[in-house]
Amino acid sequence: MVSMLDTQMQFNSIAGHVVDEYHLDTEEYYGDPIEGIVDGVTTMPIGQLNITFSFLDGGTGKRYTAQFLVLAKADFDIAIGGPFIRESKIYIKDPRGYIGTLQQIKS
Known about the structure:
Elements: E1 3-6, E2 13-15, H1 16-21, E3 34-38, E4 41-43, E5 47-53, E6 64-71, E7 78-81, H2 82-88, E8 92-93, E9 99-100, H3 102-106
């Protein structure tokens, strides 16, 4: 699975083929089209869903729940956007100028 953290993306997203592969239930998306995520053009998400996930330890690490927009076409399987990254503090810049996960910076 190709995953990424994107501090410039203003939402979390998941590719439609992943939703299909894992038989995830989605809801209708009633928001505005989004710009720039797929080939730099405006696209309309085909749905939305909430996902509970963890990053480490085979699922035994801290669990997060977040909303994801479903994209029909994407160059990735799942992307975590800037608002979630900042709110959850999973990726930070400390006063020494280091950028990385909280665990990496503490080391």
